């Protein structure tokens, strides 16, 4: 998984695998969430959004299948 730079108070780190569409989001409270079937364009939109945390909540967390960390 490749680490992606993100500036957010909610998100500490983002990792994405282009090969299988897996996304790992490390939250600032220490929780880690993993999703599958995420398109690269969606990940880029999240990390470049004005508020990556808000984008994550509104467009990623409830939309993609969450998998065990």
UniProtKB/TrEMBL annotation:
What InterPro entries does the record point to? KTSC_dom (IPR025309)
> In this protein, which residues make up the domain named KTSC?
7-64
Say which domain of life the source belongs to: Bacteria
Q: What organism is recorded for this protein? A: Rhizobium altiplani
In Pfam terms, one family for this protein is: KTSC
Q: What is this protein called?
A: KTSC domain-containing protein
């Amino acid at each position: 998984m490749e680490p992606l730079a993100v500036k957010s108070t909610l998100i500490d780190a983002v990792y994405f695998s282009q090969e299988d569409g897996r996304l790992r989001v490390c939250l600032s409270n220490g929780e880690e969430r993993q999703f599958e079937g995420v398109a690269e364009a969606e990940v880029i939109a999240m990390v470049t959004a004005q508020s990556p945390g808000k984008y994550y909540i509104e467009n990623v967390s409830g939309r993609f299948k969450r998998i065990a960390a």
